[in-house]
Design goal:
This protein is an alpha+beta fold and about 130 residues long. It is built from 3 helices and 5 strands. A hairpin with a 3-residue loop joins strand 3 and strand 4. The two termini are about 15 Å apart.
Length: about 130
């Protein structure tokens, strides 16, 4: 089952046409990913402090399907597609009720502070893979 993150569209999220500004969908799905990882039990602050590992977006595919508007209640669904030693691919969907508004496929990589790729600890990989 996909993780769900609920949000409401505020005036600041919209453009002159009164619809959600396209870049704000990236903010919405970022917040949802953070909450998704947190609910799995991954403490990103501890991961950085103890293992020196952070996540970074490596690739993103996005489909802007329908406009969301001021005061809409939205749900961002996040679910894993694949988890490897140093990477995870997530599918994310933004819904207004049953209506699909935005969809993305996001590839995240694990990095060290130097920017070099890092292998995720086995316990973190298991959490992200749902096991």
């Amino acid at each position: 089952m996909a993780h769900q993150f609920r949000l409401r569209v505020y005036y600041e999220d919209t453009d002159l046409a009164g619809v959600v500004y396209y870049a704000n969908y990236l903010r919405f799905i970022e917040r949802a990913r953070t909450e998704y990882v947190r609910t799995l039990g991954v403490d990103q602050v501890a991961l950085k402090r103890e293992a020196g590992i952070v996540f970074a977006v490596r690739h993103l595919e996005a489909d802007f399907i329908r406009p969301a508007r001021f005061d809409d209640e939205l749900v961002v669904e996040t679910e894993p597609e694949a988890v490897t030693g140093a990477r995870m691919i997530l599918r994310q969907r933004v819904l207004r009720g049953e209506e699909l508004v935005f969809a993305a496929r996001v590839t995240l990589v694990a990095l060290r502070a130097s920017g070099q790729p890092a292998r995720l600890p086995a316990n973190i990989r298991r959490m992200l893979a749902g096991g």
